[in-house]
Structure formats: structure tokens, C-alpha cells
Predict the 3D structure of the following.
Amino acid sequence: MEQLTPKQIVKELDKYIIGQHKAKRSVATALRNRWRRQQLPPELKDEVAPKNIIMIGPTGVGKTEIARRLASLARSPFLKVEATKFTEVGYVGRDVESMIRDLTELARNMIHQEKTEEVKEKARVMAEERVLDLLIPPTPAQQREFSLDDEKEEGSPVETPLDSYQTTREKFRKYLREGRLDHRQVELEVADRSSPMIEVISGAGVEDIDINLKDMLGNIFPQRTKRRKVDLPEALEILTAEEADKLVDMDKVTKEALERVEQSGIIFLDELDKITGRETVAGPDVSREGVQRDLLPIVEGSTVGTKYGMVKTDHILFIAAGAFHASKPSDLIPEMQGRFPIRVELGSLGKAEFIKILTEPQNALIKQYKALLETENIRLNFTEDSMEEIASLAESVNERTENIGARRLHTIMEKLLDDISYEAPESEEVEITIDAAYVREKLADIAKDEDLSRYIL
């Protein structure tokens, strides 16, 4: 994080997201403020609250992608949740505290993976020894000689059975590393992952009971194993994973996971506008303002119990998002508004942005389709006027029907390349050029018929 200045963060986000400079600046500053907070003296560090953000804009303009890429840059535990999944306590639905439990689970898996990578080389060596034991198991006499090996006189000219065994073992090690034994199969004893289904019908707040029951029963009953015949490469992977698990200290993993959630966790709360109270709606509105009041303690900072320990939410960064068509941020309860000091509006995307989305990002749509069809030995070429035609069409359909932003490009590209994708395995054409005429031929009639375009595009 020390090297990631706000300008560099924006530059990294520019590789994947077109436009929305204001939103990128806001999240880059919020991320940098986390690093700044870590440099403060302890008595001041705990007083600095995270600068939570509300992103306002229609669907498909990059709100979720900005938050996801930001978390990836910072290597932070990231969770995307829909605000509409939660209900007020006392009603059927998810409990708001479950998002913290899910985030903790994600952080634990993330750190376990990191620690596993650190010990992978050592685990691989140990797994290799176990594979060699399976290929050429030592006899009881040789095993005894292994234990007496240190007591033997060095430089003895007589080759013992143990020396012969070690020579053979080294030959097999060489063959194993060269891949000459990949066709061989060995029999392994692996843990039986299947367990009896335990379903618990539960209300809000106790949806984790079934998971806890499985953990508890898993500790009571002995671990079941089963024998499997697998190829050597797969056996090596299985044994490497087993050895890595033995080398990783899970207590340290859990402790680090809790700390990472508390200090650098990011929760992306989508569809926040759907839980704003609407005065125009008649009748009780149980799942809106009530959800906000349940969310408030978590956003403000409270302690949530998870199966790995207590998690303080004071410094988790919350990025909320919503279209706010039928409501506005000021419709949120005042306390909730106060916990999201940064408001940033994302603009709608037009033809110019669509052309850039098709070509510029590292994961650009045209790059994806080219790579997919190259697997069938078909080279796709898009002319400049074809991309302009696709972008114009996307803009036109968005204006006439529902505005779904850049997601419209996905539906148009799928329809445009439908025949090529279907015929690709049997096609003899090695190179196909898509021009504006081809785009108009495939899509113009659908685009003109508004009723049809609502369904197709």
C-alpha cells in the first residue's frame, strides 16, 4: 500500500473501467486513507473512522467493478451483498450480521491460501518422498538400516542393500520429475469429504446453525477415509495439499484473518436505494427502514460474533451503491446518511464510452470473443466502423428500452456472433472479418422493432 498512491490506484482502475473518474478518485482516496491511518500513533489510530462511500448511478456503469478491483489491488477481504436480501429482525430473511460472518470466512480462506503458497515448495518435497514410498516401499530390514544409517562407517566400499535401495529411489525421483512416470497409478488413502446432510429450518439470526452442527459432529466422530487409485501427477497434488495443511498453523491463520477483516475488510452494499422508506407507499414497510436500523450498528461500529471469534466492524470500509431512480440518498434515515460522508455520482455511458469498453480494457469484450474463437482456429477481425455500429446500437437500445449500461454490449455481442459461435467447430473459414454491414445485417431489423428488441437485445 505504501507504493499505491491515489493517482496510481486510479491508473490501475483505468485498465479495467472506462470513465467514472470522480468515483475512482473517491475510492482511491478512501483506500489511501486506510494506509495513512495505519501510520498514526495508537491513541489516534482508533479514533479515525473509515470514509464510507455511496455510489449513485444506473446499472451497468461500473459501480461493482470499481469496488471489486479496488479490493483486489489492496488484497483486502471483499464481499458483495444485496441490501434487499436482509430483513428487519423478527421477519423471515437474512440477518445483517451474516455479512460479517461471510467476510470473515472469505478472509480466512484468503490467508489460508496465502500461507499454503508460502509452504508449497517444502510440501512438494515431502509429497515427493511419500510418492516414492508408494512406488518403491522399503522393506522392514531397509527401514531398520535407515535408522542405523548414522552409525555406519563412512567410505565403506561394500554396497549394502540400503545403498542399492537409495540408488533406485534417486532414479525413480529423476523419472518422476521428468514426467516419465505420469502414466503410473498409485493407491492413496484420502479423507472422505462426503458427510450426511444436516438441514436446519431457521429464521433470521440462526442461519449458521447447520454449519456449526456439521463442525461439531465432525469433531465427535473420527475422520473417515477411503482408498482411491489415481495417476501420479494427481497423487502428487493430493499429497502436496495434505502436507501443506500440516505445515500451516491454523490458529495463526484465524488470528490474521480476524485482524485483516477488522483493518482492511471491504463490504460492497448494493441496491441501497431499495431499502429507503417511501412515503408514497401505503401500508406497513417492514423491510426497509427496519433493515437500515439493523445495518446502522454494523456500519457505525459494533462487535459481531463469528465462529472464529469476535470481529469489530469499526474500521471496515462500506461502499454502498444504488440507482436512486425512485428515491434519493436523503430518503435514508439521518443516522445512516451520516455514516456515508462521501457521495459520488456515476454518469450514464454513451457511444464513445462503449467503443472504449469494447477495445481498451485488459478484459475488453472484443479481446474475450477473439480469444474464445481462437480455440476453434478462427481469427476474428473487427473493423473500426463495426465497433462504431455496435456502440451506436447499444446506445440506441438503452435509450429506447431500459438503460442497462455496458451490459447491453454483452447481449448485442452474443446475438451478433451467435451463428459464428454455433458453426465454429465445423467451420472451414480461418479468418472472419466483422464490418458495419455485417452488424447491420444481423441486428438492424431486431433494433428497429422495439417490441422485439426488448426481448432479444
Summary: The chain has three domains: 6-115+257-345, 120-151+159-247, 351-451. Confidence is low (pLDDT under 50) at residues 150-159, 199-205. The radius of gyration is 29 Å. The domain at 6-115+257-345 is CATH 3.40.50.300 (Rossmann fold).
